[in-house]
Write a structure and sequence with these properties.
23% helix, 260 residues, 12 strands, BirA Bifunctional Protein, domain 2, alpha+beta, 2 domains, SH3 type barrels, seven-stranded mixed sheet
């Protein structure tokens, strides 16, 4: 089945490119022209980016895919879509791994997918308004054949894992698009975040362990307790519980990258 047929079977359109600056940006271009429920996939990105404006290494062979959704949920709960997407990416990566390796996949708050403690994939959720319409774009990068080495957090790819068969972009996209459709249905435009939160916590990395969270203020160090009903991380610190709305989480014993 071709990529377009895969997406169409779930009620989504698809545009596939050899190269784009950013699949997220390409989705916003399509949103201005009235598109909705659209996947954009590219063989390479020339200006890929991650959270907080970081560059996202985008060589050929990996999966770079973004999905455009217009008004996917009431604004009060729209940010939950990041956790929905994280579950979909977990499901997709699990479908590409031997069954015995799937337990090594864990989700690191808010939107990283780890394999054996190293970053395998990431998500970038962005939104903008076009009149009365809100365009939400979820970008997913999955390391199939290569991974960056100059990172502050250790990274990996499926190709570097022993016993894992080569995974094509088409097969990875098929797994991701199917999983995204299923997880969006589970979420129900925010009506059942409780189920999303339950499933996310069951796959979470670092629960009960000491973590360091780096955000805009002083680093927060403490025991990771849970994620609350609003998607905030709860960390038990020496001076009491802290609720974290944004930041980068570093787990104890996590693989280190080449940069601090």
């Amino acid at each position: 089945m071709r990529l377009g047929e895969i997406a169409a079977s779930q009620g989504f359109g698809l545009l596939s490119f050899d190269a784009v600056g950013s699949t997220n940006d390409a989705c916003f271009v399509q949103a201005r022209e009235g598109a909705d429920r659209l996947w954009i996939v590219a063989a390479i990105q020339t200006a890929g980016r991650g959270r907080r404006g970081r560059a996202w290494d985008s060589p050929s062979g990996n999966l770079f895919a973004s999905v455009l959704l217009i008004d996917p949920a009431p604004m009060a709960v729209a940010a939950q879509i990041g956790f929905v997407a994280a579950l979909a990416l977990h499901d997709a990566a699990g479908a590409c791994l031997p069954e015995g390796r799937r337990a090594e996949l864990r989700l690191k708050w808010p939107n990283d997918l780890l394999l054996g403690g190293a970053k395998l994939a990431g998500i970038l959720v962005e939104s903008t308004n076009f009149g009365r319409r809100t365009a939400v774009v979820v970008g997913c990068g999955l390391n199939l054949t290569s991974h960056p080495h100059e990172t502050s957090y250790g990274a990996t790819s499926l190709a570097t894992q022993s016993g894992v068969a080569p995974v094509s972009r088409a097969d990875a996209f098929a797994a991701l698009s199917d999983a995204m459709a299923n997880r969006l249905a589970q979420w129900g435009r925010g009506r059942d975040f409780a189920a999303v939160r339950r499933d996310w916590l069951a796959r979470a990395a670092g629960l009960g362990e000491t973590v360091r969270v780096i955000g805009d203020g002083a680093p927060v160090v403490g025991r990771l307790r849970t994620m609350d009903d609003d998607g905030r991380l709860i960390v038990d610190c020496a001076d009491g519980a802290r609720r974290i709305e944004a930041g980068d989480v570093f787990l104890a014993g996590a693989p280190a990258g080449a940069k601090g």
